[in-house]
Inverse folding.
């Protein structure tokens, strides 16, 4: 398939769909949107078929066209094992989200679908761009449709949530722009004023690996800027506060894409740009990032435990799960990074499904308060069975995909820092706690007065809704039993990324520092938990797990 | 005066004749707008053609007082474009308020000749004459709606502070003339080079420099010399505000290029710190005050102050020796003109009836009622914020690139300036996107305002929108042009 611009097609196919929707009559909007997303998905699957897994660390199907020649900026796309998985994850969840939007979205459908398809262009572009300038442009393109999706089709407090989302993201990304320009100029200055390759990912990576790489002070500043942009996107503690607001206010499909794909952009950025361009700075920052990841893992889990709202619970569980991803990346161990990448994919599948399922119940009850549910198993048995499946997957039940990523991450972490691994393992128990407790309160017990009051409105999950979660469930089983499928594809990328950082000094993680940070965290969480309204107004007693 | 001189000033002379021609057209066919529009727009196309044709070779006229180079040509085309778009946006707005179009166009064209004279001046006196020729019609335009109290108030403020600053500026020029004994730009530069080599900056010259800086800072509306801007912008008829926010600003930057970058080039190390300070203050204050505005015209007035700050970043980068700073400044000027004129044209379209305010409420629900207008406004606002792939993004990236380069070449303060600039861009996102919130996420409060649906205005809107996207997606051609223009003086 060499010479055939398949990457351009997979990136811009959704844009073609968006333009079609703009000019076709309103009745065609839904079929065209779903058709475009499915077609994009099929093209991305062709990518998987054509992809040479043996050369997974190298970029394939690359396309390179000069764009702004005087700065050496190019339109350059390429796919390696890591970006391949994330692109397929994006295209899969895009059509699922569009299908899941058919019923809930009843106003301004045209604008909604156009926004969604443009969002898909931006997300795929971020994963495929091999030019830092182009990467930045796709990165920012993602922002606008998401802003509109939350702001127009969101809940009651949507405007506050969407502005918060945009401002947080923009502060990080604009500083990243400065870092991109500074890196390009440092390269240009070192090459006698020649701009050729100054924005080219592969050229910059080779430059960073050879000799001394970039100047240490530039590395510290530039990595700091990249770190801020990515940490806000992941989101890492303490930059996570936009996430619960955005999730709660976003429409179901918006939450799905936000959790499944948008959060991955930050983690992807760390692996692709942070480690490769600034290996020394990555080593320097690693202890800080590891401690922040541990904090995120614990903090997210504890706060999830006390959430009264289903969506908020899943949102905070995302903070915790994404903590495993950043932990796995910055532990600089093969298993750790493989675990992190698996965790990215699995979190995308499982959390996406959980948000879809929360959406299903919200459609019927127009409420997400856990305390108002109860006894659903008697009324909607199929729904409860599916929900149970994904709850167990999210809790890390062996045999389902959620387990593999976390397990590998922990193995990698244990090799570097047993105390850190011990802390993270403990949280897996906590995760089982908040998820199963939530499941118990929603599914079992007496049918609540609230649900009784709904009468016939409380129908079981319908065929279309099953269709949206079934593919995710199938993948969760397949990847849980055969994680090697994914590992074969990303193996080369992991090896290359780790080879990039190995030039730096090994990290030194003081157990004492970890303990001190965790102590501080315990204090923060303690204060946070006792001030929660739920604890002030007398909550139901926690049952024995 | 030789024949060659006449050929050199041909575009300038044609512009003056055109301004007169518009008045004649109105005398021949009084009160009809078609002849005026045909003469004005057709004439502008002709002037643009002459500018490009005669601008291909560098030339001087009148013993070196008038000079045409690549920079002149670039700026002239930009001015012509700004004026042409303003003429396209104005007719329906003026007509519904009973204001004559012919005088409006003629005054606007005279302002353009002033700006063209600045761009072509190689002599301090010609520079000053050009400046006055540019700003005097501006005062007239600001008060053009003479039965509207706000328009008159804004015009008086603009006039008083404007003439005050012109006097200060002239005073500064007198110092430079007194201490160098010449008014020719090139000779001033030579003299200053000699003086700097022998004795450094003299007290008198420092004083002159201070006066010149203050005078110019008034004209570009840099903080703390910006007080006239919000009232003048809010009070003026909307098409005039659009023009005032770009035309005189670009003209004043042309003045900076001819005066500071050329004549005062030898003392650039002395004006650099001042420019850095002005840039920080201008960006930050402009943005912070814009945050609290509920009137869109006034908000754009403060945001235009902030954009002056971003352009000053480019100037500062140039002063530390980066040509990219100058190129970025020129690119920014072009991008800003396009997107800001577009944004004002949308406001104009909303104000078909006199008395329609430009408060945020006016925009409520616009995206649903008029999707096309809503999407265009969103595009302009995203561009003003600096979100890719738009002209505003690339312009901002370019000046920041220049500042980052300067910082890595040793001028650390420029690195700080780059960071201040991007943080300001994030602040600006809040108030620009608030308009989008009103357009797409709020229900209309009351009866929606009637729209102007004139073909000219909508054609102009489409042109500015296309340019906003094209300059962001394919910046290469304009980059080449500003590169050539910047090298003419740098």
């Amino acid at each position: 398939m060499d010479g055939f611009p398949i990457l351009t097609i997979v990136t811009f196919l959704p844009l073609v769909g968006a333009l079609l929707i703009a000019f076709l009559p309103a009745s065609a909007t839904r079929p065209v949107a779903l058709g475009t997303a499915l077609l994009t998905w099929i093209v991305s699957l062709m990518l998987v078929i054509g992809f040479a897994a043996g050369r997974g660390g190298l970029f394939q199907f690359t396309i390179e066209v000069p764009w702004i020649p005087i700065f050496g900026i190019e339109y350059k796309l390429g796919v390696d094992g890591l970006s391949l998985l994330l692109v397929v994850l994006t295209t899969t969840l895009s059509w699922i989200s569009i299908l899941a939007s058919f019923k809930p979205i009843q106003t301004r459908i045209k604008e909604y679908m156009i926004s969604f398809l443009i969002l898909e262009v931006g997300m795929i572009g971020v994963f495929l761009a091999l030019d830092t300038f182009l990467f930045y442009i796709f990165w920012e393109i993602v922002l606008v449709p998401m802003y509109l999706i939350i702001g127009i089709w969101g809940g009651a407090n949507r405007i506050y949530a969407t502005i918060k989302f945009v401002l947080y993201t923009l502060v990080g990304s604009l500083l990243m722009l400065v870092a991109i320009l500074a890196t390009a100029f440092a390269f240009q200055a070192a090459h006698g004023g020649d701009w050729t390759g100054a924005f080219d990912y592969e050229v910059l990576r080779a430059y960073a690996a050879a000799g001394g790489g970039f100047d240490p002070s530039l590395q510290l500043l530039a990595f700091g800027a990249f770190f801020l942009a990515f940490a806000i996107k992941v989101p890492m503690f303490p930059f996570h506060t936009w996430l619960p607001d955005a999730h709660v206010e976003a429409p179901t499909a918006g939450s799905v894409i936000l959790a499944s794909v948008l959060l991955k952009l930050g983690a992807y950025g760390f692996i692709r740009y942070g480690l490769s361009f600034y290996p020394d700075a990555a080593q320097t920052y690693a202890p800080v990032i590891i401690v922040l990841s541990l904090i995120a893992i614990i903090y997210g889990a504890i706060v999830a435990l006390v959430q009264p709202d289903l969506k908020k619970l899943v949102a905070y569980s995302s903070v915790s799960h994404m903590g495993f991803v950043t932990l796995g990346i910055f532990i600089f161990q093969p298993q750790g990074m493989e675990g992190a990448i698996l965790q990215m994919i699995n979190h995308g599948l499982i959390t996406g499904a959980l948000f879809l399922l929360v959406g299903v119940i919200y459609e019927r009850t127009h409420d997400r308060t856990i305390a108002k549910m109860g006894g659903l198993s008697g009324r909607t048995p199929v729904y409860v069975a599916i929900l149970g499946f994904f709850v167990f997957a999210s809790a890390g039940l062996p045999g389902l995909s959620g387990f593999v990523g976390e397990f590998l991450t922990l193995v990698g972490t244990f090799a570097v820092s047993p105390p850190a691994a011990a802390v993270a393992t403990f949280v897996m128990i906590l995760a089982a706690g908040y998820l199963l407790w939530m499941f118990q309160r929603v599914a079992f017990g007496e049918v609540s007065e609230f649900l009784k009051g709904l009468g016939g409105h409380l129908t079981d999950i319908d065929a279309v809704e099953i269709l949206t979660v079934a593919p995710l469930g199938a993948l969760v089983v397949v990847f849980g039993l055969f994680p090697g499928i994914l590992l074969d594809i990303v193996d080369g990328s992991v090896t290359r990324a780790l080879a990039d950082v190995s030039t730096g000094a090994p990290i030194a993680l003081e157990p004492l520092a970890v303990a001190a940070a965790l102590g501080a965290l315990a204090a923060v969480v303690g204060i946070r938990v006792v001030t929660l309204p739920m604890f002030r107004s007398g909550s139901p007693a926690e049952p024995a797990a | 005066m030789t024949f060659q001189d006449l050929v050199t000033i041909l575009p300038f002379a044609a512009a003056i004749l055109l301004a007169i021609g518009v008045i004649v057209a109105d005398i021949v066919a009084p009160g009809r707008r078609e002849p005026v529009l045909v003469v004005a727009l057709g004439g502008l196309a002709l002037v643009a053609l002459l500018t490009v044709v005669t601008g291909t070779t560098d030339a001087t006229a009148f013993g070196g007082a008038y000079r045409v180079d690549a920079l002149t040509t670039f700026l002239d085309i930009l001015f012509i474009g700004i004026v042409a778009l303003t003429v396209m946006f104005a007719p329906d707005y003026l007509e519904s308020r009973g204001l004559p179009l012919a005088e409006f166009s003629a005054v606007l064209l005279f302002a353009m000749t002033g700006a063209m004279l600045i761009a072509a001046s190689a002599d301090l006196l010609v520079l000053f004459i050009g400046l006055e020729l540019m700003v005097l019609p501006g005062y007239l335009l600001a008060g053009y709606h003479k039965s509207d109290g706000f328009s008159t108030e804004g015009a008086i403020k603009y006039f008083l502070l404007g003439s005050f600053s012109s006097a200060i500026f002239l005073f500064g020029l007198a110092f430079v003339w007194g201490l160098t004994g010449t008014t020719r730009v090139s000779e001033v530069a030579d003299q200053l080079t000699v003086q700097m080599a022998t004795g450094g900056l003299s007290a008198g010259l420092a004083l002159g420099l201070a006066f010149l800086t203050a005078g110019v800072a008034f004209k570009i509306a840099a903080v703390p010399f910006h007080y006239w801007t919000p009232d003048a912008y809010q009070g003026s008829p909307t098409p005039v505000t659009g023009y005032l926010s770009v035309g005189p600003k670009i003209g004043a930057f042309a003045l900076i290029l001819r005066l500071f970058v050329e004549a005062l080039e030898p003392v650039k190390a002395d004006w650099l710190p001042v420019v850095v300070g002005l840039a920080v203050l201008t960006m930050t204050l402009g943005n912070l005050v814009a945050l609290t505005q509920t009137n869109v015209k006034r908000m754009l007035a403060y945001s235009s102050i902030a954009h002056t700050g971003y352009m000053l970043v480019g100037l500062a980068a140039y002063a530390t020796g980066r040509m990219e700073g100058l190129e970025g400044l020129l690119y920014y000027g072009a991008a800003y003109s396009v997107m800001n004129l577009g944004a004002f044209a949308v406001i104009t379209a909303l104000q078909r009836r006199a008395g329609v305010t430009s408060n945020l409420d006016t925009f409520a629900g616009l995206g649903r009622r008029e999707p096309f207008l809503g999407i265009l406004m969103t595009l302009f606002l995203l561009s003003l914020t600096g979100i890719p792939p738009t002209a505003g993004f690339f312009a901002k990236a370019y000046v920041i690139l220049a500042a980052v380069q300067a910082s890595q070449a040793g001028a650390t303060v420029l690195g700080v300036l780059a960071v201040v600039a991007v943080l300001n861009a994030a602040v600006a996102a809040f108030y620009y996107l608030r308009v989008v919130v009103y357009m797409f996420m709020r229900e209309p409060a009351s009866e929606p305002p009637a729209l102007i649906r004139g073909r000219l205005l909508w054609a102009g809107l489409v042109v500015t929108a296309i340019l906003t996207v094209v300059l962001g997606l394919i910046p290469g051609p304009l980059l080449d042009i500003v590169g050539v223009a910047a090298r003419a003086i740098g």
In short: Chain B has 21 helices and two strands. Chain B has a mean pLDDT of 89. Residues 176 and 216 of chain B are 15 Å apart (CA to CA).
